[in-house]
Amino acid sequence: MHLADLLGWAGAGALLLAHALVTHDPEQAAGGRYLLLNLAGSAGLAASGVVHAAWPSAVLNLLWLVLGLTAFRRRRPAEPD
Question: Is the dihedral of CA 79, 70, 20, 23 positive or negative?
Answer without folding.
Answer: positive
